[in-house]
Amino acid sequence: MQCPYCERRCRLENGSYGFCRMYEAVDGEIRERFPDKWCSYDVSRVESVPFYHAYPGSRSLVIGTASCNFDCRYCSNAYIAKEDPAGMQDVMVDIKPDNMIQLARKYGCHNIVFNINEPTVSLPSLQRLSAAAKAAGLPMGCLTNGYTTPEAAEQLGDIFSFLNISLKGLSPDFCRRYLGIPDSEPVIRTIRQLAKRCHVEVATPVIESENDHELDQMADILADINPEIPWHAFRLLPTHKMTGQKYPNITALNDKLEALRKRLPHIYFHNFIGSEWVDTHCPDCGAVVITRFSLGCGGDKLDQYLADGDRCPSCGRRLNLLGTKVDWNSKEMAL
Amino acid sequence: MSVAILDARQWQQTVDLRTGRKIEAESPVVDMVRGLLSRHPFPGDCEPGSNTWVVDTALDLVDKYDPSFAFLTLARQYYCSRYTVMTAQERRDMIAEAFAEADRFARESGFLTILVGTGGMTKALTPIDLSTLDGLGVSSNWSARYAGLYGLSDRDREALAAEPRLERVASRDEVLALFGGGSEDGKRLPEYLAVSKEGYHFKNTSLRRLIMIPSRNIHIPVSADVGAIDSVTDIRGRVLSLLADRKVALVVLEGVGREDFMAPHTVCRNGEGWYCYEPTDAWYLALTSGHHCIFEHNGGYCYFKDDNENKHYPFSGYFTEMPTGTIGLDYPGRSISVGNRSMFMHVATGCDICCECFARNLYNQGCMAVLFRQDKA
Known about the structure:
heterodimer; A: alpha/beta; TIM Barrel; 8-stranded mixed β-sheet; 8 helices; 15 strands; about 20% strand; globular; B: alpha/beta; Gyrase A, domain 2; 4-stranded antiparallel β-sheet; 10 helices; about 25% helix
């Protein structure tokens, strides 16, 4: 049988697993091997994921499972994403959907965000969780590499109302060497597909001299999809198989991004401490509408929400936001 | 205003520590510290040069600032023990390297160096998951054996009573009584504090598999130079006494217990009654302030409640204010702290110049220096 979830379309036979090792064929069906098994649940700021234009200031319950369908050389969560998921089960927790909703409520969270590994490897569990979350009125978001089949992308759109999709590189050579996939076309297709029905932000880890020359072409692609799409350029943090690689030069990379901000007004540059390029400006008049702190790996943070609802306080233009400012403690429960 | 200099390698930003906002700050001390950070990029928590970075940076700062008091933390062996599988010999070698670095600092600086171990480590057993409680269980990344409990149901109480991996579940009043507090002191204490037996730990926010965690360290080792000492809270006073007539360095060796201590030492109590510290903010503050601070800093408080956009000190983790009464703030002479235990250097020591790695959960973002004082002659 062929796995229907990611673009690898692995062949699954009895007793064998695909690339991600999260699905198996049993009695003519593709099944999850570890349903409802989560590696973590924790409270986080939505800006830390990062989402800069979705529910600003809100409190998220961040969750994850295990494994991934990519093989990124710089994976920052390799101890979750690249380990054999079967060997991790002793430290995973079994949380059924209703219990996860209860956890989110007890922690006073406004939404649930899947951001530790790739959601495509755990879609059935996420579908069940999504049904419970919708019943409870809790939006769900995710970070994804977008390397899904069109059918699975639709399922992602059913589950999540806001997504941050990684556009990690364009050329087949880069994709093969750094990501372990043949090409980026499925990712671009997923961004196009989901941007029509969900709130989408895009993230690109930038590796100096490796994919920074593709930024201009990426900007063209994103501008064609939606010129107001929030785009997060990450300074590469050399980890996993790239430990020891030099850190990209911040000034040089920002110079390249600055030229692109004329086409895409919401280009952010972060994943390092103290970035100056994490504030949102009105695309028309340039007024500052949201300010943030960049804490790098510690997660970003809302500083000031200056917008008037979803409009620029200076010229009144509507901003590309999903929801408006959420009070951090507005869903605190009395326990 | 306290100045923070953020160094992300080849790029620096200067901010007001309290507001987190960019400022223009020019002074000889600021310039000196900017240069210091540029010269000493942090190699990473578990990298072989991690403890060497602490000592190199501290010696450079001693040379440029001429302090009388230095606070150092050497934590590489703690991080590596926590997250990587090592043989006993590998671990001993790593601890020996930490002692060698402390000795190098003493030799090259001429400071009397007082060493303190935060306590030994033990194999991490299966995590205790609190997600099935009707009430709320709160555990933090760095506190393995303590968790806060809120809103427990009868069913929860029965489940906790039947949990063989728990040492005790102490009520807020019990914790207050243990540390001599009144009811007004308990605002940041959980309703109940769950304590696991040695080796067990609560499922926490760390995504990495824990290999070793702090033992149940009732006592911790301290250099014999300080003489007989009763409690971790007495070390500060002894150091201040020694500072009356010579330069002194207090060097913390994380993850090092009595059995690992490679220098003449005595031992002191590491808590009160059944409560013994882990190397957390509470331990650091007990060491540097001379008081137990667990009413404010404990493994069970819902720190995330304070984390709204009105919280100050965005680069100081969950701290909403800078602690007062720390050794660096109270000592009138020049002081520095350098360490690879991130924000604890500035929040817990209060030294004039604090230099720390900006690594969170082992992700190496660079360094940060905090300048609390620039006016000491």
